[in-house]
């Protein structure tokens, strides 16, 4: 009986540990959705030259999102009409 309890506890701990190792597909593209900034209209036509990288999400192509793209700053990202929005920092 005691060994069954230890075995059960070990199984629960193993499942708990392994569940922390998986990554959901939704988090694959944009890691931090809380800081996602959508691009606003009108789009910028002239941008400042400051290097503060952002990771941008492009519009869907054939129903699927493309890979995220790193832009030099938020202005240059939103100047691209295909960009929907961005999060601070370079893409992973």
How would you describe what is shown here?
By secondary structure, this protein is an alpha+beta fold. The protein has a domain at 28-88. It is built from three helices and four strands. It has helices at residues 2-19, 26-29, 74-79; strands at 37-38, 54-58, 69-71, 83-88. The N and C termini lie far apart (49 Å). 13% of the residues are buried. Residues 21-30 have low confidence and may be disordered.
Task: Pick out its properties.
30% helix; Kazal_dom; four-stranded antiparallel beta sheet; Kazal-like domain-containing protein; alpha+beta; 17% strand
Distance between the termini: 49 Å
Low-pLDDT residue intervals, each spanning 5 or more residues = 21-30
**What is the overall pLDDT average?**
77
β-strand percent reads 15-25%
Number of strands: 4
Could you spell the SSE succession in H and E letters? HHEEEHE
Helical residues, percent? 25-40%
Structural class: alpha+beta
Summarize the structure.
This protein is an alpha+beta fold and 92 residues long. Helix content is 30%, strand content 17%.
Topology of helices and strands:
Elements: H1 2-19, H2 26-29, E1 37-38, E2 54-58, E3 69-71, H3 74-79, E4 83-88
Antiparallel strand pairs: 1-4, 2-3, 2-4
Domain Kazal-like: 33-92
Protein name: Kazal-like domain-containing protein
InterPro entries: Kazal_dom
